[in-house]
Amino acid sequence: MRYLLFALPLLILVGLIAVFATSIDRDSSLVRSVLIDKPVPEFALAPVDGLDVPGFDAATLKGQPTLVNVFASWCIPCRDEHPLLEAIKAETGVRMFGINHSDAPENARAFLAELGNPYDAIGADRDRRVSIDWGVYGVPETFLVNAEGVIVYKHVGPLTPQAIESELIPALESLKS
Asked: Which residue, 51, 71, 89, 111, has most beta carbons within 10 Å?
């Protein structure tokens, strides 16, 4: 019994080391969402005050593929990602909606005035309720929704040129065929 008391912490330590060692090279953007292949959650977002684009709801996401990007003006990675979103919009013409996460309207307006607005609609998620329903871990996150309103792709963190080329564009092309 006495040896067990000494060995137990050592066994726990070895187990933790094994868990961390197997996770060390894991890509943090590959977070499997439980919402993949499921309809978008029911929601309705009002537009960001003072912007000339509408808000949107779950029904608006039906009819054609839509890229949904969760962003905030205070998010540094969102700034880095933003030119890539504009390039995606220009190159593919995909319908792009934004969920403005926990942001003051004047800050969201300033962010988009400075960096450009690739979004066809932007919903204000001031209380983060819709983001939680979508399973958002943090901003930015990007979802691809098919014409039936089903989430088919999720990217956690800022999009990169590599992720766009190897994951997002193929996912978009599969929806068009």
From this structure: 71
